[in-house]
Amino acid sequence: MSDASTLTVGEPRARRTQQERRDATRLKLLDATIECLVELGYARLTTLAVAQRADVSQGALFKHFPTKAGLLGAAVEHLFPRLIDEYRAGFDGLPAAPEERIAEAIARLWHIYQRPELLAAIELYVAARTDPELAAALSVVDPPHRRHLHAVARELFPNVAATQPGFDALIELILNAVQGAAVGGAALPSNPDHPRMLALLTQFARRAFSSSP
Known about the structure:
about 210 residues, Tetracycline Repressor, domain 2, Arc Repressor Mutant, subunit A, 2 domains, mainly alpha, 10 helices
């Protein structure tokens, strides 16, 4: 006779707890929000469209996220770590020397900034200029996200971070240069200046990373 504690073929699985169901619904809503934001843009995104895509009621959506701004802020907060993990993947096999690693780091950064999800998130930051509620929601998300970005940069370039007093400012310069070009590229994706800009940025970063403090 089999052990009663062993799950046999055909035996129903244990029911999910209420918290597990809540977490699963929340995750569906966040993924649906990102998808709607990519497809519809901020101006046309509605909580009804998100609820329908997530296959939940609008009332259930508001139980998790009482405001549209709170939903959008949570969706961006959910998205950023996923993109950072994608960015970091594969760096283990690269040379440790920063002047050799920096070209790949900038190329990967440019690739990530071409992702529709990230461009959609940037759209929210632009919209926040005239939407105080959205600005408040994003203001909670942005500081830890920037700290995470700098932590990854220090992980990828530990020697430079330890010896260059201006390392964080240099990382901000690189991030903002790539982000600015990516935003401009949304309107002019085939801009021939972008490859030249990236090559110049890589050359500048190599010099900065290899120079003495």
